[in-house]
Design goal:
Layout lengths: L1 H4 L5 H18 L18 H35 L15 H6 L1 H4 L1
Length: about 110
Amino acid sequence: HFDSATYLGQEEVNYALQKVRDECNEVLNTRIFVLPPTINPSLPMALDDFEEIQYNAINQLAMSLREQWSTDLKNGIHDALQDTHEGCDVYLHEKSKEVYEKSKMKRL
């Protein structure tokens, strides 16, 4: 049976996957190369200035990914699955390692 071999029949899992997709799409829509609005892109710019601007922008994006994005991703998954109950395939609060090892949650 396909339903027993997949999570896609579970509303909580679909909601969690949508949260992950939303967070990933937000990253995809992030501009990596940026110019401050005070700089006219049609005028020449010194290479050192351009490198510094890009270096700062990339560092800011990396910090955002490490701190905010990973937290938002974790919180989105947790929020989607927090109301699952014991015995559910994706129960977040499973304490038994043996039960967890045999569960679908381990593969998620």
